[in-house]
Amino acid sequence: MKSLQQVIEAARGRPWWLVMAVLLLCASTAEAALEDKFDVLKIGATTYKNVTITTKNKSYIFLLHSTGMTSIKLADVPPEIRLKIGYEDPAVAAARSNPSAAWAKNTLAKVETPAIKKLESDVSGLWRGAPALSGAPIPSLSRNLLLIAGLSLLALYLFHSYCCALICKKTGSDPGALVWVPVFQLFPLLKAAAMSPWWFLAFLVPGVNLVAQILWCVKITRARGKAFIVALLLMFPLSTPFAALYLAFSGGNQARKQSRRRVEIMTLETA
Length: 271
Prior knowledge:
By secondary structure, the protein is an alpha+beta fold.
């Protein structure tokens, strides 16, 4: 094929229309050289026949085929077709855009040892889900299970209220019906510890409720006539249930009854 300069030299002195025709012929020839033609081109699930790719962009290609024309995203074009129509290999482009990652990958491939391979297989197995874990049955929250859980919590609360009632009775105080009501059972417990009902408000204030709780532990232990160590056990969450059970079910004379007896004896002696 003659170069453009040779064509221009050959057309010098010719009529202008002949020069324009020659230039258009050269342009169409150059454009045809840039076009890619395929008898059959398969992209995805679609097969095109008599394909001519007229436009190649960085994000799509435009082609003419036997039944019309269409544009296709470059990401949907198979890698081997990209190479045929002049696009760069995606792996090479990615390596050029991120040379440090490509270097690290190549370096790790060179120093790969059996231990590293085993570690990679273990990690990939955990990522996909280990068979032992994936095959483990997960219990479903059935109605019966929820019913059993609810009844267990109710029984636990009733036992807690019963212990509070026993503590109140063994200090010589009548627990009343409030001892069975959530939150309000604090009133009979305060009465059993000889504390003012206004302390109920202190239990509702964060920070202040710690002081009120410590004071109640000391006073209820004294009202039951027990040692100070029981009050200490009552203050710590881990030992609170055991100390409360001890106060509820242990025997012994109440400190309040002893003080009342002393007052009665002193009154009889005075009389």
